[in-house]
Design a protein that fits this description.
By secondary structure, the chain is an alpha+beta fold. It is built from 19 helices and 23 strands. Strands 3, 4, 5, 6, 9 and 10 form a six-stranded antiparallel sheet that branches. A six-stranded antiparallel sheet has the order 13-12-11-16-15-14. The two termini are 64 Å apart. The N terminus is likely disordered.
Length: 627
């Protein structure tokens, strides 16, 4: 590269390389055959070093046309003389200005490619921290005589390179260009030229671009980049939908992401109220303040775009709304001089929640990826809305269940207490006068009253799993199981049980409720052991972000046809006369595990024991959270 320089620039180049070898400057090759230099951040080391003024003087005299911009607003902070010469600008006029203030799009160009491509390239460098080589790009620049507001036709071969500080944070972007206008003009005229003789540019870097072949590759890469951005936006929106409870916040985020990604002037989420013939613009971007949450459009007018969208299972794409033959009507988009749009149903076409639409005042052809992007966002919203509706119904069901359980327990406790008291009085006063059959009847009545009391208490606890649970916090399962073993110490000793506990993890949970789960499962393992001394093993293993905990016994087992039914309330699969119990314990376990975001199941065969397994969330942070 240095061999092609004139004497003055060769001297600058050699001085720069000398400073690099001394460690006073850093250097990097930009693009194919261009080198840039910079002064490293001072670390306090002693040495001669070089001043900032010297660095700037050397930089401004380097032989290549490039400038340096900040990564936020792309403000120009330094520029070489070669760049000023190539772009016909003055240093004092452009320093402190943004790149797009200095080089705006030609207002007379109906479809400028320079500004959008450069913007996307710089955004890619900022977001991905990688160098971006642009193809030959048509980017006119303001002519030297700015008074007539004329632009001079120019073609450039740009490269944008990230520059990082000592902490690997992006500090600047190096924007390097080569003016290839003569070569492109010659190519367009189909003249035969010798690259090395006619132009003072690097032929190896430009040959493919000059034939404009890489423009197609660049456009394909741009499409892939936009598709990746859209896919990431859908993924981020899906994660946000899981984290936020406010539906309007989610709808607003969806509208903003769509508007930004598709560069659309308007975006709207329209809510179709059940039994209504109008759509309310629930959230949106670009509308006046008095539109969102107040203005409606017709869902019944056969000529309206909204009605047409609701009648179709596929998204509706319009490139020029005023000439659209499928529908018309004085509705919201038309009133805003909208010309192109995409609209699709949110939810099932048979039972839609509403419509999602993006609109622009410019005529444009949307790609298949753009349409798929809108549909994907609508699907995220539909799933979130369905989940929130289910959660609301579940919450109402839980409230009704708790009210019923409370009322039932309150209404039954008092008469049950009276029955139990009179049965005890009969036993105390007339026990000696009762024959064996009468005593057996009395014992059965007392036992039935006690079981009913336990059932009522169990139902009340079952109904309050959601409403009276504690926030989920990091819980050490070793401590939980140790407490359960102490509570069951007498029962374990009486049946000569062998309980083996493996290493257990810390999970996010409600310690009190998890104690109930282990106590129910361990008690079942002891109770349903058959004729042999019980053997129970408790273990856990990692399953992605969750832990799968297992309680395994060697008891009587469960028939595979009954393995789902055992988790239902009052669904017992063993004879009541052989084993006591309320029939609520496993249902309680499932309700608690589901409250923790997990699932519970059993693997078993009759006579071969049973393994009850359930999943719990692993500890990902130190803060407690509500389920």
């Amino acid at each position: 590269m240095a061999d092609s320089l004139d004497a003055d620039r060769r001297a600058v180049h050699d001085r720069l390389e000398q400073l690099v070898s001394q460690g006073d400057l850093g250097a990097k090759v930009v693009g194919t055959n261009t080198q840039v230099w910079w002064r490293p951040h001072s670390d306090g080391a002693s040495g001669v070093g070089i001043s900032e003024a010297t660095v700037r003087q050397l930089f401004e005299n380097v032989p290549d046309p490039y400038l340096i911009v900040e990564p936020d607003e792309y403000e120009i902070v330094a520029v070489s003389d070669a760049y000023l010469e190539a772009t016909m600008t003055e240093r004092e006029a452009i320093l402190g200005q943004t790149l797009f203030e200095t080089f705006p799009a030609d207002p007379d160009d109906p479809s400028p490619e320079g500004v959008p491509r450069l913007q996307r390239s710089l955004n890619r460098v900022t977001e991905q921290h990688v160098e971006d080589v642009m193809p030959v790009t048509h980017y006119p620049v303001p002519a030297q005589d700015a008074a007539d507001d004329k632009f001079e036709d120019r073609w450039w071969s740009p490269v944008n390179t990230p520059l990082f500080d000592s902490n690997d944070a992006l500090s600047y972007i190096i924007h390097h260009v080569q003016d290839v206008t003569p070569l492109v003009d010659a190519f367009l005229r189909e003249d035969e030229i010798d690259l090395s003789d006619e132009l003072d540019i690097d032929a190896s870097h430009l040959t493919a671009d000059m034939l404009l072949q890489t423009r197609r590759l660049y456009e394909a890469r741009e499409e892939a980049y936009e598709r990746e951005r859209q896919q990431q936006a859908v993924a981020d929106l899906g994660q946000f939908a899981l984290e936020v409870d406010d539906l309007d916040a989610l709808l607003d985020a969806a509208a903003r992401r769509l508007s930004d990604a598709l560069d659309a002037e308007y975006c709207g989420v329209f809510d179709l109220h059940e039994g209504s013939e109008t759509l309310l613009i629930r959230q949106g971007v670009g509308w006046d303040e008095d539109v969102v949450g107040d203005v409606t459009v017709s869902a019944a007018d056969a000529e309206s775009q909204a009605a047409y969208t609701l009648e179709n299972e596929h998204p509706i794409v319009v490139e020029d709304l005023p000439t659209e033959p499928r529908f018309s009507g004085p509705e919201l988009p038309t009133d805003r001089d909208v010309r192109s749009c995409i609209s699709t149903v949110i939810g099932s076409p048979d039972d839609p929640w509403g419509i999602l639409g993006v609109y622009d005042s410019e005529t444009q052809a949307f790609s298949e990826d753009d349409v798929s992007f809108v549909v994907s966002v609508a699907n995220v919203l539909a799933e979130a809305i369905e989940r929130k509706q289910y959660e609301s119904e579940l919450e109402r069901s839980n409230e009704r269940l708790e009210q019923f359980a409370y009322a039932a327990s309150h209404d039954l406790r008092e008469p049950l207490r009276m029955v139990s008291s009179y049965l005890r009085l009969i036993e105390d006063r007339y026990g000696d006068d009762l024959n064996d059959e009468a005593r057996e009847f009395l014992d059965s009545a007392v036992g039935g009253a006690e079981r009913m009391r336990d059932t009522i208490e169990g139902l009340l606890q079952y109904s309050r799993v959601e409403t009276e649970g504690e926030p989920l916090c990091p819980v050490n399962l070793d401590d939980v199981v140790a407490d359960v073993l102490r509570d069951l110490e007498v029962q374990i000793g009486e049946c000569d049980a062998d309980v083996e506990v493996g290493e257990l993890p810390r999970v996010m949970g409600d310690a009190s409720q998890l104690r109930q789960v282990f106590q129910n499962l361990l008690s079942n393992g002891l109770r349903y052991s058959g004729d042999r001394p019980p053997r129970v093993r408790i273990s856990a293993e990692r399953d992605g972000r969750e832990w799968a905990v297992s309680v395994e016994d060697e008891g009587i087992g469960i028939d595979p046809t009954d393995q789902d039914r055992v988790f239902e309330v009052f669904q017992r699969v063993e004879p009541r006369d052989d084993y006591d119990g309320s029939g609520i314990g496993l249902a309680m376990c499932r309700r608690i595990v589901e409250r923790h975001g997990g699932e519970i199941w059993v693997d078993s065969e009759p006579g071969e024991g049973a393994t009850f397994s359930f999943t719990l969330p692993g500890v990902s942070g130190s803060e407690c959270r509500l389920s």
